[in-house]
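In the current project phase, the collection of sequences with tokenised folds has grown. One resulting record follows, to show the layout:
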Amino acid sequence: MFHRFLRAALVAAAPLMAAASPAFAKEKEGGGGWRRGHGSRAPVQAASGAAVGAAPGQRFAEPERRRSAEAPVVMKMRRVRVPQPKVISDPAQVVRDHRRVPSPRTDNAGARIRQHEAVHPPSHHSVVINNKAVVSNIAVQQRIEVAPGRYYWHHDHGVRYAHYYDRHRVHWYGFYHGPRFYWTRYHSGYWWWWDVRFSRWVYWWGGRWWWPGPAGVVYVYVDNSYYPYDGGVVTVKHPEVQAPPVEAPKAAASGGWKSPDGRRSIQIAGSFGDAFLYDSSGAQPVLLKFIGRDIEKARFTGGGASGKPLQILAEFKDGTFAVFDADGNPLDAPASPAAAEVTPSAAPPQPESIPPPPGSAPGETEPAPSSRD
């Protein structure tokens, strides 16, 4: 199960990495960029060939010509608690068609509509469905506002919206929120919204938008992307390009962190929390790579007698973390879902009720979602 989750996480993270750094895209295509196992950017090279800032006689393990000028991409992550999703097991309850509602050019007063349609999943929807008066009135309107192709305009208890009933007997609701509006569709007991950026239908549950992905994996929308649900938490990823300093510090004889097998060590230097990875297998430590900035502490996992791959877990001052392999290359996910602390999410308020579908009993509402928080 975890391997399927990890594959799904890597698929979800690939566009983020490619967008953050052209070097990542080049490596993925096999066309160059930074190489796995080597530094992504070398310090300024002196005429003698020794790296500026290195110890006397110290050289990098790889020549200058093998290194890219691209700054490294650090995949900063944090574990976020989310409510347990309502998994839709019946395919008939999932919206998979390509129907859209034609947006009107003018409102009921004849004024031109200047708001733009939302391109991000609207968190404002929690305000709508938690408004009991609006929910109750929508349930009544679904039974009487059934002229196909007509827009019904409402300004109800502080919520401005339009109701549209199409020729396929689908009820659409367009809600205003500041400079934006968004169309939702009520189908089989769920509110659905079309995410134009990802070309997918997502449904509202437990204060969040969810996507019923392939192979039965459910994804939740957090921080402008979708992440696979994994036992009450998701790993939110933010790629960040961090240029290394011009000079690297000399490896200290003591302090810092060493791997269980003694082959690797990490030093954090300066007020900016710059972390550097060293190869400590020889007589003198050799600088391998700049790990990142604003790092508070780091530790090694695996390696030695454990039989597991050696990895580096770096914890940043802002509460995020990043995982690297033994050569300092960023990884997309920790070796175990429990490798990092979980932080609670600031989820929108939980829904109280939603309107029943046409023909259902009055007062029928969505079951209260369970949570593992």
About this structure: The longest helix spans residues 2-20.
